Amino acid sequence: MQRIYKTTPQGELAIHIFEPDTDEQTAAIVFFFGGGWTGGNPQQFFPHCQHLSERGMLAASAEYRIKSKHNTSPYECVEDGKSAVRWLRAHADKLNIDPNRIASGGGSAGGHVGACTGTVPGQDAPDEDMAISSRPNAMVLFNPVVDVAGLKRLAERFPRDPRAISPLQHVCSNQPPTIIFHGTNDTTVPYEQAQRFTKAMHKAGNTCELCAYEGKGHGFFNYGRDDGSAYEQTVAQMDDFLVQLGYLDPK
Q1: Domain contains 251
Q2: Chain centre distance of CA 83
Q3: Does pLDDT of 152 surpass 70?
Q4: CATH number at residue 7
């Protein structure tokens, strides 16, 4: 199922929804694709959505504005991520989902978008209903950019102060429980970013589980990568994490 969740000056944005086969209210998750805030496609997380919908929760993969298609910056990416979470919550009754069990997820730049929805204040679309929270109840992040300010080579992509949308700089108490998957040999988004973010989350009293994949590089988790074992393993760990939160029933 595909729905338009937002209309922007650059065009409409779709959210691709995989519904579980149940009449009961379920949890939900929305994924954001990777691509350096410049490219990418929601189909990246369709396999994850398929798995989770078959396991009994609503799963979605959202479009968001990107530089190659919309000539926008990472700030619009973050705004759109927040809009997608808010849209799910606003339509909880129609979608038969629990508005208090909505997770965000994503990989690389999409992991940054997902992380920002749970940590960064503001950056909301001005015409949306602020009475409906854009903050997720959990986060599932795959080699996410969590310290934008620390990646100097990306400075040209941020026309304004990058700290405004840098998750690490906004960690505080009472933020969503989080799981992070990261390869220790990632040369695109250094593994130590995930380590520092996890340490900051723990110091703030938040739940944050870092799953290190020794010797793996960027994007190791994707469906169809190498022999598929990393995809299967990360999906199993994601599944366990969501079971612990009560978003999925145990297998």
Answers
A1: no
A2: 13
A3: no
A4: 3.40.50.1820
